[in-house]
Amino acid sequence: MTRKINLLLLLFSLIGGAIGFGIGEVLLHQLSGEVPSIVLIGLYFGILALCVGLSCLIAEMIKPRLNGSSWRQRYVGASWKLLVPATLVLLFALGTLLEFVYELNLNGAKQVKNIVFVIDDSGSMDVNDPNGDRYEATKMLIGKMDQDKEAAIVVFDDRVQLLQPFVRLKNQEVKNEVYSRLDEMEPMQGGTNFNLALNEAMEQIQGRSTSRRGTLVILLSDGFSEVDPSGVLREYQSSGVAVNTIGLGLDNPEGSELLKEIAAVTGGQYQDVSEADQLSFAFQKIYDNIGERTLVTERTGVTQNSSYYMILRIVFVILLGAALGLGLGVLFDNRHLAKSFSIGGATGGVLAGLLLEFGLSGADFPDGIIRLLACLILAAVIALFTLVVPVKDNQPRISERRGRFGGARSAGNAVGRRQGENQNRGF
């Protein structure tokens, strides 16, 4: 048992980690919202493992420093057959499972899947939003919502209209139907009544509620309404539904104070928007904080600062790192390398998990750099850990090499030599 390192394998492992990161990022951005997140994250880790495994296999073929020349001569064909099962399949399966568990609401916090838009259509909106930017902002946000989310739209003045009951936004065709409802809506032009609007929204929520789907409300208004917040918001408080409020061009301080109170009572946020063309940014800000979470992206919403999910992410990345190391050991059919790589992968997983947990900020480019560093850490630590955990040399003994080329060995000795080699390798 010796401590050694294959510098070529280290270099190739880093290259494989960078390539896997690049492919994973493309999938993360192109398929987000189109493919369930548990499948997407499974693919991310599976492709990373495949690229690292392929690179390490090529490096050890070129320079068999860790596994020995007898492996290259006799068993490299088996390693090629094991490449996909030991890397892509293993990490895809484990990544999918861990992401599924990570998205479960095990600590009682529900991920927001349903959004109710409550939009003021009173007469004063002709002045504050003459071009209907509030509806364009609504369409913009609906267009960005994932296929597993649902939306409902309530418009109001001194009356209330359910413009769109809850509908799952499963494809573009459904979204286009929602857009058509908004485009064809007749102006209401009356006063402002928050009571009717919030009560209608809650009826829709209660009729659609499930134990696993969280809901939030976006209430947009430019006016003031006579309302008793403690009464109309009681159901929102008991159901844990946050009402995020947006005040558009509010000159009346009573109106802004009321919207602030509604948000504060329900656990939502208030935004003051002076011009209607800024509403898209206000809607986007709310959506960015609705409580999304995956193992490789920033956690938002009520679980953003959760110690439970912080620990869970780090532990799961440790398991993924250990699985990546184990897969490389299986790839080379060497239990000693499997042990070294697995411990190295777990150690790299600690560092990568901490980096993801405390480095992600929600900004695209910086978060991409954080994920790249996490992938490179995993790849590097696994390759370096043979300096820490020794591995057994798979090279045949000198006497065996002499016998192989001397031609004076009996059949029994040949069998003994093969058995001796097999004792130094495999599982």
UniProtKB/TrEMBL annotation:
Task: List the residue ranges of the region (Disordered).
Answer: 402-427
List, alphabetically, the InterPro entries matched. CLCR, VWF_A, vWFA_dom_sf
Keyword check for Transmembrane = yes
Task: Classify the source by domain of life.
Answer: Bacteria
- Segments traversing the membrane: 36-59, 80-102, 308-331, 343-363, 369-391
Q: Which UniProt keywords apply?
A: Membrane, Transmembrane, Transmembrane helix
Kindly provide the name given to this protein in its UniProt entry: VWFA domain-containing protein
Query: What is the organism of origin for this protein?
Result: Paenibacillus antibioticophila
Q: What is the lineage of its organism?
A: Bacteria, Bacillati, Bacillota, Bacilli, Bacillales
